[in-house]
Amino acid sequence: MADVDLEDVLKAWTLAATDEVYTAMGGRVLAYDAETRRARVRGLAGIRYRDADGSVQFDDPPIIAAVPVLFPGFAGRRITWPVLEGDDGVLVLLDRSHDEYQSTGEPGNPASPRRHNFTDAVFLPFDLSPGASDEHAGGAIVVTGDDIRLGSKDASDAVALAPTTLANDEEVADALISVGTIAGTANTQLGTAATVSEVITALSPLLAAMKATWPLLTVSDPAASKVTAE
Questions:
Q1: 222 vs 74: which has the higher pLDDT
Q2: At residue 216, does pLDDT exceed 60?
Q3: Domain boundaries, the chain
Q4: What is the model's pTM?
Q5: Is 117 exposed, middle or buried (0-12, 13-18, 19+ CB in 10 A)?
Q6: pLDDT at 176 exceeding the cut of 70
């Protein structure tokens, strides 16, 4: 009988034991309930195990129901975004049961002895796909999307774009300067005792002359198409 090396036995036992300890893996959303913030998630990797002769085998990736979806947030502040079927992220298996915390929101002693169990998984909706960092810009926080709301999920006031707003201000300022010029010319021609009808009569040819050489006041909508605030 061949000698049994204790080190080899311990290594084999450790590998067998750790094969059944799950901590985190990639996951894909199969369905999502925005009201409960829970998702049905399938793992992206098969479950590794060893058969009777010690060879490595794989079971199909697990499918876990009612997984809490976590978003960044604290002190009453939160950043959220839509979670769609097919989105990938990270499944994290908590090392203890959190049933009591999920029910009460308070710390407590877990009634279940389970450890590293798929029942205690949570899902982080962070993009794992190749090219996920395409929108990265050094030194900047980049927020992309077609419906970005600031301050509240009910925000509906469009955010004004600075370049368009400044251009509109310049248009209005030029118009006011021109109107002031016309009024000053009319006042010089008519004196201070002119009646309203006399002022209108004097302004008409001046306005007509200006219209021929100066474009009408035009302003653009400064509202951002994708960002609202409250």
A1: 74
A2: no
A3: 6-144, 159-229
A4: 0.65
A5: middle
A6: no
pLDDT digits (tens, 9 = 90+) for 106-133: 887 877 788 878 888 999 998 877 765 5
201 vs 193: CA distance, rounded Å = 14
| DSSP codes, the chain | -PPPPHHHHHHHHHHHHHTT---EEEEEEEEEETTTTEEEEEESSPEEEE-TTS-EEEEPPPEEEEEEBP-SEETTEE------TT-EEEEEE-SS--HHHHHHSS----S----S-GGGEEEE----STTTTTT--TT------S-EEESSTT--EEEEPHHHHHHHHHHHHHHHHHHHHHHHHHHHHH-TT--HHHHHHHHHHHHHHHHHHSPPP-----EEEEEEE-
Fold classified for 6-144 = OB fold (Dihydrolipoamide Acetyltransferase, E2P) (2.40.50)
Task: Identify the pLDDT of residue 212.
Answer: 58
- The closest alpha carbon to 230, from 180, 156, 135, 124, belongs to 156
Q: What is the pLDDT of residues 31-47, one digit of tens each?
A: 999 999 999 999 998 88
Residue 66 Ramachandran class (φ > 0 left, ψ -120 to 50 alpha, else beta): left
